[in-house]
Design a protein that fits this description.
- This protein has two helices and ten strands, in the order βββββαβββββα.
- The chain has 109 residues and is of the alpha+beta class.
- A five-stranded antiparallel beta sheet has the order 5-4-3-7-6. A three-stranded antiparallel beta sheet has the order 8-9-10, with no helix packed on it. A two-stranded antiparallel sheet has the order 1-2.
- It is globular, with a radius of gyration of 13 Å.
- The two termini are 18 Å apart.
């Protein structure tokens, strides 16, 4: 399995270690990858980024526009579908229809 996520921008190609990724957020056709070092932006949509992470059991798509890294979840709050508080202080929603799958994944870890 690949231990890096390679993304490109207009001027650079980044090789981000998977262990540094906290969560990933989509803004339409652009994606923001939040890491320990800060945010990285790429022109790929979340579906394509998620496809590149398929081999890693540590990542879960919690919502149409969010993917989280299991090792960076600080807490789970039982509100609506749920909210995850990440190690960087970000709140990431869990879609109601993904809540059951998320809890199964979360409890098996």
């Amino acid at each position: 399995m690949n231990k890096h996520l390679t993304i490109s921008t207009e001027r650079k190609v980044y090789k981000i270690p998977l262990s540094d990724i906290i969560h990933i957020k989509s803004n339409g056709m652009r994606t923001t990858i939040f890491t320990e070092a800060g945010a990285h932006y790429c022109s790929k949509n979340l579906k394509e980024v998620h496809h590149r992470l398929k081999g890693s059991p540590d990542f879960f798509r919690t919502h149409t526009s969010h993917i989280v890294n299991f090792s960076k979840i600080k807490e789970y709050q039982r509100v609506d579908g749920g909210i995850l508080v990440m190690t960087n202080g970000s709140n990431v929603p869990i879609a109601r229809r993904r809540k059951s799958d998320f809890l199964n994944w979360f409890m098996k870890k």
